[in-house]
Amino acid sequence: MTVPATTVELGVRVHPTAEVEAGAVIGSGTALWDHVHVRTDARIGRGCILGEKTYVAYGVVIGDFVKINACVYVCAGVEIEDFVMVSAHTAFTNEVLPRAFTPDLSGPETSDPTERTMRTVVRRGSTIGANVTVGPGLEIGEFAMVGMGSVVTRDVLPFQLVYGNPARHRGYVRVRGDLLGGVDLFAPPSSDPDCDRCGRR
């Protein structure tokens, strides 16, 4: 594996089987484990962990201190902000009506981003559970939580807990991940606003 010196900062750990393409930027303290593939022009921040067999497409932006588990597919058009957790086997998507072929049936459609590529943003501090599929053009709000196995088809509000297929509102969570309102999943966000564990409202 050859990693151009201009693409990585000091303290980056890159497994010998990982591939980092020219033009990608990897922040200090980030670890890329076995068979991770980072495409050109992707930007990964400081202190991140990318688990084995994770794929990061062209131009993807990943913030600082992001934890991405094994076998995650991060397609073009995705931005992941700081302190996000993306659990194993999560798949992002970026087009509503994709086809494998060009409109004139002359060959395969390009895999590069096009005008049909939609942007998805995962906001600071949110968590995406294992085996989640995230639809195109969505926003997952700050400190939101998406339960394992969900299919996300609409925006997720900040601090909202969603799960299911399609993912639906199930309650609210605090910054640390505790349910707001205790066992009452449907407690409104105004109830019990103070967190006993971290003191935040």
Which labels suit this protein?
201 residues, mainly beta, disordered N terminus
What does this structure look like?
The model is unreliable at 1-6 (pLDDT under 50). The protein has a nine-stranded mixed sheet with strand order 1-4-7-10-13-16-19-21-22, with no helix packed on it. The chain has a six-stranded parallel sheet with strand order 3-6-9-12-15-18, with no helix packed on it. The N and C termini lie far apart (47 Å). The protein has strands at residues 13-14, 19-20, 25-26, 31-32, 37-38, 43-44, 49-50, 55-56, 61-62, 67-68, 73-74, 78-80, 85-86, 91-92, 120-122, 127-128, 133-134, 139-140, 145-146, 151-152, 160-163, 168-172. A hairpin with a 4-residue loop joins strand 21 (160-163) and strand 22 (168-172). The protein has no helices and 22 strands. With 201 residues, it is an all-beta fold. The protein is globular and about 55 Å long.
Quick take:
With 201 residues, this protein is mainly beta. It has strands at 13-14, 19-20, 25-26, 31-32, 37-38, 43-44, 49-50, 55-56, 61-62, 67-68, 73-74, 78-80, 85-86, 91-92, 120-122, 127-128, 133-134, 139-140, 145-146, 151-152, 160-163, 168-172. The chain is built from no helices and 22 strands.
